[in-house]
TrEMBL record:
Transmembrane feature ranges: none
Name of this chain's protein: Rhodanese-like domain-containing protein
Keyword tags: Signal
Superkingdom of origin organism: Bacteria
Length: 109
Protein backbone atom coordinates (compact mmCIF):
# COMPACT_ATOMS: atom_id res chain seq x y z
CA UNK A 1 0.00 0.00 0.00
CA UNK A 2 2.74 2.47 0.89
CA UNK A 3 4.58 1.63 -2.35
CA UNK A 4 1.47 2.37 -4.44
CA UNK A 5 0.98 5.68 -2.64
CA UNK A 6 4.63 6.57 -3.18
CA UNK A 7 4.44 5.70 -6.87
CA UNK A 8 1.24 7.69 -7.28
CA UNK A 9 2.76 10.69 -5.49
CA UNK A 10 5.89 10.42 -7.66
CA UNK A 11 3.80 10.27 -10.82
CA UNK A 12 1.85 13.36 -9.72
CA UNK A 13 5.09 15.25 -9.04
CA UNK A 14 6.44 14.29 -12.45
CA UNK A 15 3.20 15.36 -14.13
CA UNK A 16 3.56 18.80 -12.53
CA UNK A 17 7.33 19.04 -13.04
CA UNK A 18 7.34 18.03 -16.70
CA UNK A 19 5.26 20.99 -17.94
CA UNK A 20 7.36 23.35 -15.80
CA UNK A 21 10.54 21.87 -17.27
CA UNK A 22 9.10 22.22 -20.77
CA UNK A 23 8.18 25.86 -20.13
CA UNK A 24 11.65 26.51 -18.75
CA UNK A 25 13.29 24.79 -21.74
CA UNK A 26 11.17 26.76 -24.19
CA UNK A 27 12.03 30.00 -22.41
CA UNK A 28 15.71 29.11 -22.37
CA UNK A 29 15.60 28.24 -26.07
CA UNK A 30 13.89 31.55 -26.85
CA UNK A 31 16.50 33.46 -24.82
CA UNK A 32 19.29 31.57 -26.54
CA UNK A 33 17.84 32.34 -29.99
CA UNK A 34 17.47 36.02 -29.13
CA UNK A 35 21.03 36.16 -27.80
CA UNK A 36 22.36 34.43 -30.92
CA UNK A 37 20.47 36.82 -33.21
CA UNK A 38 21.76 39.84 -31.28
CA UNK A 39 25.31 38.46 -31.34
CA UNK A 40 25.11 37.71 -35.07
CA UNK A 41 23.89 41.23 -35.77
CA UNK A 42 26.97 42.68 -34.09
CA UNK A 43 29.29 40.71 -36.39
CA UNK A 44 28.14 41.27 -39.95
CA UNK A 45 29.24 39.09 -42.84
CA UNK A 46 31.46 40.63 -45.49
CA UNK A 47 31.57 39.88 -49.17
CA UNK A 48 34.84 38.95 -50.85
CA UNK A 49 34.79 42.31 -52.62
CA UNK A 50 34.41 44.17 -49.30
CA UNK A 51 37.30 42.21 -47.79
CA UNK A 52 39.49 42.90 -50.84
CA UNK A 53 38.71 46.60 -50.59
CA UNK A 54 39.47 46.67 -46.85
CA UNK A 55 42.81 44.94 -47.53
CA UNK A 56 43.66 47.41 -50.31
CA UNK A 57 42.75 50.34 -48.05
CA UNK A 58 44.77 48.90 -45.14
CA UNK A 59 41.66 48.97 -42.95
CA UNK A 60 41.62 45.36 -41.73
CA UNK A 61 43.69 43.03 -39.59
CA UNK A 62 43.33 39.47 -40.81
CA UNK A 63 43.90 36.43 -38.60
CA UNK A 64 44.31 32.96 -40.11
CA UNK A 65 43.22 30.33 -37.59
CA UNK A 66 44.14 27.30 -39.69
CA UNK A 67 46.79 24.76 -38.78
CA UNK A 68 50.45 25.70 -39.30
CA UNK A 69 50.61 23.29 -42.25
CA UNK A 70 47.58 24.92 -43.87
CA UNK A 71 48.93 28.42 -43.23
CA UNK A 72 52.27 27.50 -44.81
CA UNK A 73 50.59 26.03 -47.87
CA UNK A 74 48.74 29.28 -48.53
CA UNK A 75 46.99 32.15 -46.76
CA UNK A 76 45.53 35.57 -47.39
CA UNK A 77 48.41 37.99 -48.00
CA UNK A 78 49.25 39.88 -44.82
CA UNK A 79 47.28 37.50 -42.59
CA UNK A 80 48.59 36.91 -39.07
CA UNK A 81 48.84 33.24 -38.18
CA UNK A 82 46.96 32.62 -34.93
CA UNK A 83 49.27 29.85 -33.71
CA UNK A 84 52.31 32.09 -34.11
CA UNK A 85 50.88 34.98 -32.06
CA UNK A 86 48.35 33.46 -29.67
CA UNK A 87 50.51 34.03 -26.59
CA UNK A 88 50.90 37.71 -27.49
CA UNK A 89 47.74 38.32 -29.50
CA UNK A 90 47.02 41.71 -27.94
CA UNK A 91 50.34 42.98 -29.27
CA UNK A 92 49.52 41.75 -32.78
CA UNK A 93 46.13 43.49 -32.89
CA UNK A 94 45.54 47.18 -33.54
CA UNK A 95 45.29 49.45 -30.50
CA UNK A 96 42.08 50.93 -31.90
CA UNK A 97 39.36 48.75 -30.35
CA UNK A 98 36.90 49.72 -33.10
CA UNK A 99 39.26 48.50 -35.86
CA UNK A 100 38.07 45.84 -38.26
CA UNK A 101 39.47 42.40 -37.44
CA UNK A 102 38.65 39.47 -39.66
CA UNK A 103 39.39 35.86 -38.69
CA UNK A 104 39.05 32.99 -41.11
CA UNK A 105 39.60 29.26 -41.40
CA UNK A 106 39.12 26.68 -44.10
CA UNK A 107 36.47 24.80 -42.13
CA UNK A 108 36.31 21.73 -39.93
CA UNK A 109 38.19 19.44 -42.32
Amino acid sequence: MKLNTLLLASAACMAVAAPMDLAYAQGATKDKKEKKAKHKASFPNMTVKEVQQAIEDGKVTIIDVNSPKSYQSGHVPGAIHWAAVKSKLAEALPEDKSALILAYCSGPN
